[in-house]
Amino acid sequence: MEIEIKAKIKDFKDIKNKLKKLGVIRVGLKHQIDTYYLPYARKFSRVGHRVLRTRYDKFSGKASLESHFYFNQTTGLEHEVEVSDIKTLEKILTDLKCKKVAVVEKKREAYHCQNMEIVLDEVKGLGKFMEVEIIGEDSGKNKKKIKDFYKKLGVSAKQFVWGPRYHGMILKKKGYQYHYFK
Predict the structure, then answer these.
(1) What distance in Å separates the CA atoms of residue 74 and residue 76, rounded to the nearest whole number?
(2) Exposed (0-12), middle (13-18) or buried (19+): which is 116, by Cβ within 10 Å?
(3) How many domains does the chain divide into?
(4) What CATH number should be reported for the domain holding residue 78?
(5) For 41-56, how does the pLDDT look when each residue is reduced to its tens digit (9 = 90+)?
(6) Spatial distance between the Cα atoms of 56 and 42, rounded to a whole number of angstroms
(7) Domain residues for 175?
(8) Secondary structure of 98-122 in the HEC alphabet?
């Protein structure tokens, strides 16, 4: 299971310096384009939110298909498979009547510390964010570990972003009304 907390960040410079002081390892840069699809006639919902996502990384040229099932605002189950032909995959999804609902383009700088993945995302149309993720049980202990890590970096709980993921934020910004925002 994936436990993740996102925060809105004004400037990455201070965060990067603090990550370096903590000995956090930088693992790479990505330029990802995520396209979100809803299977058939499904709608987004707050609980039991299911979505398909294709991901293409402009830097590496790698592509994947992922299914996501979100249990709540911080926890979800994800399955991913690498694909060799993103254009054909997108045609298949369209043929299966999956509806393209959002495109998220982001530049991502990834770090690793203990069992946490830390990413700094600059998301087109949304701004700068930091995500800290742990793969494990959806436990208070793991959520506390993430919150404590943010605290070490000087990121306050007021900066946490609860609710929709990037695709949901983009849909909300475009004025879409769907169950997740209720």
Answers:
(1) 7
(2) middle
(3) 1
(4) 2.40.320.10
(5) 555 554 456 778 899 9
(6) 24
(7) 2-181
(8) CEEEEEEEEEEEEEEECCEEEEEEE
